[in-house]
Specification:
By secondary structure, this protein is an alpha+beta fold. The two termini are 50 Å apart. The mean pLDDT is 96.
Length: 684
């Protein structure tokens, strides 16, 4: 294996790693094209409509090789005879890194500065593409174009569905297949390489052409990174090492379900007692309304003032300590905004900690019948202040964790203290929010406010770099239905694509969240969602935006008994899950994995998005269709044991019974963890 190489060709050049060509320049493959455009962003409650006018066409730049040494090369790209962009290529830590900069005296053509850039990479018609952050509709991205912009995920997310049509009529919130909280300008190819584009600008990754992959950005990227490896698992590991890795979860997370409960101290304690009486192992209570509620036509929202609501939760400080003594943690909620008129808003506004509008006033964002200010994380004093809010009001109060919600609403016309463009800061904002939480927890541990490794926070929004700051993602606000793009089935490709983007810890709201346009969570949906959640890193329920219209864990005795069985199974898998978390933190291999990660020679596996491997030794095929009592499963080569019946199967297609409480799960016949798996089945 020879590492980095660069060589001139008859019509250009090619570069790569270990004999694999990753970059080409030639008549049919111009590496770098550029032009000029004007973008328009329209935001309504976190939903964006983005359009572009091309002012100067996107055309290939002329390339000249200025220098070519053994371990590096320097290229000059010109437009209309004027120097435009310098690119340095070199091998760094086993990867090919291309760094971009404006050429001295260049960056202009015919009087128009260039601000649109397209990088063309060689593609293969038969390759498969995973990644681009968290993608809910598709796992294999080949054949599609993916705009990369953090936003609300959309309601329905499929223009062919009635739910999406209704949501689009209601503020344009229906979304499309590419809408996501966590976009990331990276991908992994079945060709044995990964690619990451270092840009915070709006971008599009185009996988539609058979022989080319197009990376389009609305600003000059800082760099392009490409890594190659012999296996897909090693390729993902290398990508993860570049972006950063998560620590293992707190030990207590594995001991039961985190029950999403609202309504006050008494309600939480009563529901906890009911769950325990039914035999449900409970690791925690997650009460998002610990700081108060705000009723809107959408449903029950929160007060957005991150201070304990003593009237709604009397004696909560005392009860938190008592619950912890019983092995039950209490978790809350926070986001990076402060409700207008509330005490924290007034404090932030008086200190100048909020982002401004063009007139110099505090920028107020409409979050749905109420406004909130944006804590300006580019202001070091504001950043420190908000860390203090987390340390004092959450950790100091006794919370063992929280939902660190939102992060994707930064308006592109906001004025930031640092002078940074809000258009470029928008995609970075979720990672800044994650860093704020991470530093608050680390400082609280050093200051003795929390024991090391005790706090869990989970996020829905993310960006490149979130990996090293955010310990756990959740899939956001799924519909309380069976829809492929926004219901229970969508959480599987979401977890798998995010895992292939370097974030290996993921879970979802059991039962979903969004209850609109006649949707109501049913008992069957809730119970099937429980089954899927039992085979993930974390089990946590949610009451949804309209609790009165939804089925809940304690709506009847059968549901409680089902939750108890599946949670006991999940808790019994703890040794295996802890092992996988260590593998994720040390090797960057996600807990939930596409089948192809370990079975690359299985041609059918690459497109499967409704099954997954939990680690290398379990194959999980959740029931994702209403009314189904069996499902067809694809098994990769080898011998697999059906955990419920003990029957052994070879690779290929099979159909198995799947009554409620027995989701299709198979273990490798020679797994070293078989005793743990069998104990888990017996435990439930």
């Amino acid at each position: 294996m020879g590492g980095f190489f660069f060589r001139k060709t008859a019509e250009g050049f090619e570069a790569g790693m270990d004999g694999k060509v990753l970059i080409e320049q030639g008549p049919g493959m111009p590496f770098l094209s550029a032009g000029r455009g004007t973008g328009t962003y329209e935001m309504y409650r976190g939903n964006f409509r983005i359009s572009e006018r091309i002012d100067a066409p996107i055309e290939p730049l002329e390339c000249s090789i200025e220098a070519a040494l053994g371990d590096s090369a320097r290229l000059l790209f010109s437009r209309g005879g004027a120097p435009a962009i310098c690119v340095s290529l070199r091998g760094e830590a086993g990867r090919l890194v291309a760094r971009f900069s404006e050429a001295e005296g260049g960056g202009a053509a015919q009087g128009l500065p260039i601000n649109r850039f397209r990088i063309s990479l060689p593609g293969n018609e038969s390759e498969h593409i995973y990644g681009c952050g968290e993608q809910f509709s598709h796992l294999d991205l080949k054949g599609r174009n993916f705009p990369l912009w953090t936003s609300e995920q959309g309601v329905g997310r499929n223009k062919a569905t009635e739910i999406t049509r209704l949501a689009d009529l209601d503020g344009g919130s229906g979304g499309d297949y590419f809408w996501t909280f966590f976009p990331q300008a990276s991908f992994v190819s079945s060709g044995g390489y990964w690619c990451g584009l270092d840009t915070a600008a709006y971008a599009e990754f185009d996988f539609r052409l058979p022989g080319e992959i197009g990376l389009y950005a609305w600003a000059l990227p800082a760099s392009l990174v490409l890594g190659a490896a012999e296996t897909l698992a090693d390729t993902v590991s290398d990508l993860s090492a570049w972006y950063g890795r998560q620590k293992a979860l707190p030990d207590w997370c594995h001991d039961g379900v985190i029950l999403g409960i609202q309504g006050g101290t008494r309600t939480c304690l009563e529901k906890l007692a009911k769950a325990k009486a039914a035999g449900v192992p409970v690791a925690g209570i997650w009460a998002q309304d610990w700081q108060g509620i705000n009723m809107t036509t959408f449903g029950q929202r929160l007060r957005w003032n991150w201070v304990w609501d003593e009237a709604r939760y009397p004696e909560l400080d005392r009860e938190i300590r008592a619950l912890k003594g019983e092995g039950v943690r209490f978790l809350g909620y926070i986001n990076p905004y402060v409700g207008a008129g509330m005490s924290l808003f007034k404090e932030a506004a008086a200190a100048g900690y909020l982002a401004k509008d063009s007139r110099g006033a505090d920028y107020l964002v409409d979050f749905g019948e109420f406004d909130a200010g944006i804590v300006d994380f580019t202001n070091p004093r504001a950043f420190e202040w908000y860390k203090g809010v987390i340390k004092q009001n959450l950790i100091g109060f006794g919370l063992s964790g929280w939902m660190a919600d939102f992060g994707e609403y930064l308006p592109t016309d906001a004025v930031l203290q640092s002078g940074a463009s809000a258009e470029l800061a928008h995609n970075e904002w979720p990672a800044l929010w994650a860093r704020c939480n991470r530093e608050a927890v680390d400082e609280a541990e050093r200051e003795g406010l929390a024991a090391a490794g005790e706090i869990l926070y989970f996020m829905r929004a993310g960006a490149a770099g979130s990996q090293k700051y955010c310990p756990m993602m959740w899939a956001g606000d799924q519909n309380v239905d069976w829809s492929e793009d926004d219901g229970l089935p969508s959480v599987i490709p979401a977890a798998l694509s995010l895992g292939m983007s370097g974030h290996g810890l993921h879970h979802s709201d059991i039962g979903g969240y969004t209850t609109l346009y006649g949707m109501k969570r049913t008992r069957e949906l809730f119970m099937r969602w429980v089954e899927q959640a039992a085979f993930t890193a974390l089990m946590r329920s949610h009451e949804g935006n309209r609790p009165a219209e939804n089925w809940h864990f304690d709506s009847d005795e059968e549901t409680l008994a089902h939750l108890a069985r599946m949670t006991r199974l999940h808790a019994a898998l703890k040794p295996y899950l802890v092992h996988l978390e260590k593998e994720n933190s040390e090797r960057g291999l996600p807990l939930m994995r596409p089948i192809s990660l370990h079975h690359e020679d299985d041609a059918k596996a690459w497109a499967i998005k409704d099954e997954y491997l939990l680690g290398e030794d379990l194959l999980v095929a959740p029931v994702l269709e209403q009314g189904a009592a069996a499902r067809r499963v694809h098994l990769p080569a080898g011998r697999w044991v059906h955990l419920w019946s003990g029957a052994a199967y070879g690779g290929g297609e099979t159909c198995v019974d799947a009554p409620m409480g027995e989701p299709p799960v198979f273990a490798k016949a020679d797994s070293a963890w078989m005793d743990v798996f069998m104990r888990a089945i017996k435990a439930c």
